[in-house]
UniProtKB/TrEMBL annotation:
InterPro entries: Anhydro_N_Ac-Mur_kinase, ATPase_NBD. Pathway: Cell wall biogenesis; peptidoglycan recycling; Amino-sugar metabolism; 1,6-anhydro-N-acetylmuramate degradation. Keywords: ATP-binding, Carbohydrate metabolism, Kinase, Nucleotide-binding, Transferase. It comes from Asaia spathodeae. This is Anhydro-N-acetylmuramic acid kinase.
Amino acid sequence: MRSAEPGFLRVIGLMSGTSLDGVDAALIETDGVTVGRRGASLSLGYDAALRQALYALFDRASELRGDEPELLSAERALTDIHAEAVRQVLTMEGEVDLIGFHGQTLFHAPQSGRTWQIGDALRLSGATGLPVIHDFRSDDVRAGGEGAPLAPWYHAACLAGQGRPVAILNIGGVANVTYVGRDGTILACDTGPGNALLDDWALRHTGVACDHDGALARAGQVDQARLTALLAAPFFHRLPPKSLDRQAFIAALDLLAPLSAEDGAATLVAFTVQAVATTILPEAPRAWFVCGGGRHNPVLMQALAETLAGRVAPVETLGWNGDMVEAECFAYLAMRSLRGLPLSAPGITGAPGLFTGGRLSAAAIRPAPGFWPLPSRDAALSRDPH
Ligand SMILES: Nc1ncnc2c1ncn2[C@@H]1O[C@H](COP(=O)(O)OP(=O)(O)OP(=O)(O)O)[C@@H](O)[C@H]1O
Ligand SMILES: CC(=O)N[C@H]1[C@@H]2OC[C@@H](O2)[C@@H](O)[C@@H]1O[C@H](C)C(=O)O
């Protein structure tokens, strides 16, 4: 079925985040400016073998050339899970026009001019018969930006009528915030760790890569001296925009190693929360709406509510699906890329202007009627509120 809205395409966004838990897929209808109907969505978990293969690649990502057999084999497996996710959405939704494929970030070092998301877009296009936009971050980094976060474009497009200043806080493997000021100015950055360190800590101590419902952290005490040491890192004194690699604070696990499983988990939760609280924003947000897997952790949510000045609530309060915001975001960004609309902005990624980004891969595509020709870039830009 075609999108009912003229100029809108039906786009599947695919996100596999830094938590390494799997891939999220979500369909939205959009023209890259306005968000229309949200359609089917689902998550497919990585199996243990793929998760381990990816984790092993993280550890040596900065030295990889890109043609190592174990890298290529993980990339194929990763791509095929994404193709399966698309197939399942197609079964529920019928005709779709475009895919936005984030890929798995292996390495993110914008200060060295590199950000690297693996995933074979041409293979995905061939497997699904759909055009695929991918590699969303490289152009921004080449232009001098952080390459992340990119979700603020989507957060801002979805916010409507909330009292400002307002913040959307995503707590994934890494945490990031979108701040919208009184005058609508958008400022964004990664705030610090999200769940990734806590997942690694839980895996080490319990064999399960998640402190489910905060059970460990709830039973522990924060080690204030170690927390202070962690928060002394220069990152927390930098102004936004700024971004992080998943492994940026991995040494925290060694610092906390002498602690019990419970105290270490409590300290890591406090680390995530204090990192958010110390993020330098123009004004304290009146409300923080939280998305990403961290909002399922009640101990983390309670600590955020006790620490932040404004109201703290899950994005479900706004009628959003907090598990699918990032997948929807990459559908939205794919449409923006297709139309040549900006993905970069000074307040979001620190790029020195407004730039588009992303690449189109199309193998054996069956474009839906009306897909070509695209709306003109100039017409799109003149209607873009950002
Ligand atoms: N019930 C729960 N209790 C505690 N933590 C949970 C629960 N459910 C999910 N999580 C956390 O959420 C994480 C997944 O979050 P999410 O899917 O937002 O991450 P991601 O998309 O990989 O990250 P990123 O935003 O960095 O790309 C899990 O790894 C886990 O730590
Ligand atoms: C390099 C990279 O993959 N960064 C991710 C990661 O996960 C959360 C945070 O760090 C954010 O900066 C970004 O993802 C979201 C979707 C973004 O670009 O907005």
